[in-house]
Amino acid sequence: MHIRVINPNTTRGMTDTIGKAAASVAAPGTRITATQPASGPVSIESHFDEAISAVGVVEEVLAAERGEDPVDAYVIACFGDPGLLAAREVTRAPVIGIAEAAFHMATLISTRFSVVTTLGRTGIIAEHLLENYGFSHHCRRVRAAEIPVLDLEENPDLAVERLIDECLRAKKEDNIGAIVLGCGGMADLTDQLTDAIGLPIIEGVSSGVKLAEALAGLKLGTSKYGDLAYPRPKPFTGQFEHHSNIKIQ
Amino acid sequence: MHIRVINPNTTRGMTDTIGKAAASVAAPGTRITATQPASGPVSIESHFDEAISAVGVVEEVLAAERGEDPVDAYVIACFGDPGLLAAREVTRAPVIGIAEAAFHMATLISTRFSVVTTLGRTGIIAEHLLENYGFSHHCRRVRAAEIPVLDLEENPDLAVERLIDECLRAKKEDNIGAIVLGCGGMADLTDQLTDAIGLPIIEGVSSGVKLAEALAGLKLGTSKYGDLAYPRPKPFTGQFEHHSNIKIQ
Amino acid sequence: MHIRVINPNTTRGMTDTIGKAAASVAAPGTRITATQPASGPVSIESHFDEAISAVGVVEEVLAAERGEDPVDAYVIACFGDPGLLAAREVTRAPVIGIAEAAFHMATLISTRFSVVTTLGRTGIIAEHLLENYGFSHHCRRVRAAEIPVLDLEENPDLAVERLIDECLRAKKEDNIGAIVLGCGGMADLTDQLTDAIGLPIIEGVSSGVKLAEALAGLKLGTSKYGDLAYPRPKPFTGQFEHHSNIKIQ
Amino acid sequence: MHIRVINPNTTRGMTDTIGKAAASVAAPGTRITATQPASGPVSIESHFDEAISAVGVVEEVLAAERGEDPVDAYVIACFGDPGLLAAREVTRAPVIGIAEAAFHMATLISTRFSVVTTLGRTGIIAEHLLENYGFSHHCRRVRAAEIPVLDLEENPDLAVERLIDECLRAKKEDNIGAIVLGCGGMADLTDQLTDAIGLPIIEGVSSGVKLAEALAGLKLGTSKYGDLAYPRPKPFTGQFEHHSNIKIQ
Amino acid sequence: MHIRVINPNTTRGMTDTIGKAAASVAAPGTRITATQPASGPVSIESHFDEAISAVGVVEEVLAAERGEDPVDAYVIACFGDPGLLAAREVTRAPVIGIAEAAFHMATLISTRFSVVTTLGRTGIIAEHLLENYGFSHHCRRVRAAEIPVLDLEENPDLAVERLIDECLRAKKEDNIGAIVLGCGGMADLTDQLTDAIGLPIIEGVSSGVKLAEALAGLKLGTSKYGDLAYPRPKPFTGQFEHHSNIKIQ
Amino acid sequence: MHIRVINPNTTRGMTDTIGKAAASVAAPGTRITATQPASGPVSIESHFDEAISAVGVVEEVLAAERGEDPVDAYVIACFGDPGLLAAREVTRAPVIGIAEAAFHMATLISTRFSVVTTLGRTGIIAEHLLENYGFSHHCRRVRAAEIPVLDLEENPDLAVERLIDECLRAKKEDNIGAIVLGCGGMADLTDQLTDAIGLPIIEGVSSGVKLAEALAGLKLGTSKYGDLAYPRPKPFTGQFEHHSNIKIQ
């Protein structure tokens, strides 16, 4: 099984981190490849970053669909799940966002959880996703450690310290059974945080890989019946002209 | 007051239709300019189309922000409100999506409404927006006339006939007080449909213009405090490199 | 365009304040007239006050409908939106409550807001309205400055001081982008509070006027199809006998 | 125990029907008195009728509170529960609306129910109440037999025939375990409908009486702590001047 | 009228407490009998305890249905309402859980309430019930006094002290009008707590008895039409073989 | 990895069917063992059956926890997820219900799905689970093919015919992208139905196995922090005396 993990930002170091984290949980028969868009923001910390990155995500899926190395399932490795429904439209394979993956896993091992994300301003993205996915009542609180995303790469010690502090506050105050880490860049911190915090820490990249394996193992792909069917072919203009009369299936 | 109406697709005919519809309801002191992205799909009928068009929308807002003709408010004239929150982040001006505009107006003159959109597959986009905006309980049903968007331009008689049929079914079956038209391409049909159907027909472009005037008239712009503040400047790569170290404010 | 702003309480000073605030945001072609019921409470701070004032509101609308100065839209200028649906039934014109107006505006410029109202006991009215209108998830918290309504008229300095304090607490603690002022009597404080607080302050009277202009500008009136149609004429008794066999349309 | 049943409309025949229905289910130690406002509509079939009748309801409660025949609990016998919260504010006794009473009872003996009311246009009132009380998910459908309220008095045979037809449709189509009758004027029809329909028929007046007995039996009255405390005394003007400086407790 | 109060745990002292509390509020014509399962946990403080006790509850109902002392209504006297829907299936009589009973009563005398239960870990059970019954929005907070259930029997002074402390915190912090006691073992504390706290204290056993009287007084029993009909007879094995080919009606 | 699939009913044939279906999707390193309680109903078609079977489920988990063949994850193979939270309390391993498993999978490959279950009367169980898990908005409709559960074993041809008919109706009428099969006894029908219906058919046993593999692969087990911690040891009486002073961890 070939799972393609797409880092929606363009920071190769983070792609590597994510790819390694994905590989570390993959089943024996699973091959992980990690990619990133050629174009886009180096980190995703706003609706603006997210809108731009969504294009990169979809283009990565399209490239894989047309490539010579067939992909069995995709994981979108940014906690805002950018481009998720668009990506689903252009493939028969399952596509998993890491936020939804982590939320699903969290509800299976606890009755209530909190999210600890990077910046306060991206908390709203997590809140919107919780509402869309149906998990608002299962999440007690969306918290931010106030770490810029790239600090996870560049300033890891301080970042981890702040993360641990915020997770401990969540444990103490939120009446929860688990914590969801709210950033793809935290993919390599699960073990460290689990040890430090003392309750289950759920991370999205690893969760996404296992859900992707699960769906692909069931031969369940994105439904091509109804509103996730392939897009109607049509002209595109300008820098998106290459999507004209899209042929995918 | 200068309101910029952005047609998120790249069909100039539709931009013209939308611009005229916007101008026809504008207050005396309001100047309408209608634009469209240089790049993107000719119509928006899928999550894929929407993801691509969101970039065009945001780039149009950025261009206007940096242009010499200051804009007091923006209207995003596609019923999926593509790029809405991203667009809000990059300006102090208010930004209104036509779906939200129509929903707001509908709740002010009726207790329950239905939506009549183009294609069945885009109904899910309207459903998601209704949930996000809080209007799920006010909308009885999202219906589709099964008209491809561009048929509104290219095959208007048949399109209008189907629209009228679906609106009449909504009136008869849905226990409603108003109908929301679910496509920016229907912007010139409000009067015709109102006459034909016999209950208030709410159209998003015109609704968006009036809400934009309302907000701008109150000197209320997008909050720059909290999660809609300007995005953190950062590097972008590839075809989006021009967004690097964004300076807007 | 003629917008009638109805102050649901019987304090003329407040009617004047509200009328001036309304006029100060009205478009060039808009004429504002402000009235108040002949009968009712001097301020509205309970469900009891609200139930009584609802009659006054509806009677004011009926009087205007039968008067010689045609009204294009009504604004009900008390934050509990008393008599809103009843008022809508007796006119083809749009009728806007200032609470709903402020909530609508707040969702267009921020993702989350808080309400700051007068007395703690009236907070429940705002909570109920938020639920009815669909905005519960957009409002973080309903706060009270614990100011009796008439103190806004009679003891303005202290009232404003408390308001500012509570707004600053909301800004600091609530993770919001905007604040909604929860009382018609605060209509003249918007500018002062905006300056003092540093995020958008949304006030209902001004919001209501602009929404009324918006709807009237679209020729959208209250739906007379379905459950907001004119009431069935019938006998009334006692002090309400004058409503017998109501003829409005 | 003295339960005062208030018919919010001014049709004495309906007051008698309601009073008899109430008495027929009262416990041995319970005395029922049935009253109606001196002023108001002869039936309640619109938001307008409801707003007017709310004043009558509250005045009836106030009159009783000041009267010489102490009341232990109140029932508001119109399916819109007009004036419910206002009435609660002016008494320490429990106050029960017949819509809420019927909904509560329905959820205790079935998992899902439907409502059959009089006119389609009043269905929205039931929908709003279901939302406010938290019972939206327990109610499958609000149906109307399209009977004007007074036809229940004046044209009972046809009215009952239509009611039975609509209840049978609900039984067949709605996947329910019980039916709630949506009008105080149906108070004497419970047995007849139960026999005809073959599933539990829940009627609000009788339900309200038993809930009133239940609360009074527990010595539980309306909370005077918090937002249902007595209204702040204040001046009222005009025809409501008698409420000035209200003294109740 | 014969009301059978079932204490779902097997601690006779608690059955006695509950039975006395029930009898103390029963109407003159009501006879209370209190029982407990022969088998099960001595207290219910977890999902595990609850699952086991549900069997005991249903077996108690079945025993009563087959017994010689006909029962008119049942009350399940544990705040998790264990076995409620199963119990309803096996009888035509109404069956009331004390959690639902208390929630219903609380919404009738206040707009918002809090729950004070025994252990923090059982709070989730109350939260789930609030969601299922539709009362989530009416409850501000589920609190725990951190008292093991049997301490209410064995160490009553300390238990009451902690309860009072937690109730006072709820009164001070939660913006509520009433408090619901979250454990059947608190059935004898209502008066004491009402005096100490100064707002209405709602207790489930007494509430359940009065609701049971109310339903039985209306001749309303569990609907045998639809999903609460008697279970289909079928073989059972092992220790549950006695339920084979169940005949109840 | 050892996954224990527990058939909550006592029909060995169904246990075999479920075990085979589970094994057919298991990953290479996964060993499936399928068991059933010694005591309980032969099929689960009511709340009563479900309450009894929950005990069997928990006892099976306890037996496994104390057994010599360590279990890495449990699947509860009845669509009502009986005993789910209780089972979670008594183990550190993940425990997955097949209803939740199927719902989770359905939301990952479609935006809207319908459920097709056996009997109409058990539809309410699915509805309650959808609400509890947060998936109400993702499910368009819960349908029943009106097949008794054991007919899936004893009368498979007719049962499959009815299932196909109902699934085709769901496909035609419900505006969905996937169908969830609502009974563990349908575990061997997925391929046949997928071929016949033409959209993704999601079955719970297979979904549960893959989610169990996913969680165990992530070393994520049921949270022992908070409300799913091991139950407090305590005395049990009668036929449940063996649970006294439970020691599991």
Automatic annotation (TrEMBL), chains A, B, C, D, E, F:
Belongs to the HyuE racemase family. It comes from Marinobacter nitratireducens. It holds the Pfam family Asp_Glu_race. Gene3D superfamilies: 3.40.50.12500. This is Hydantoin racemase. InterPro entries: Asp/Glu/hydantoin_racemase, Hydantoin_racemase-like, Iso_Racemase_Enz_sf. It catalyses: D-5-benzylhydantoin = L-5-benzylhydantoin; D-5-isobutylhydantoin = L-5-isobutylhydantoin; a D-5-monosubstituted hydantoin = a L-5-monosubstituted hydantoin. Its EC number is 5.1.99.5.
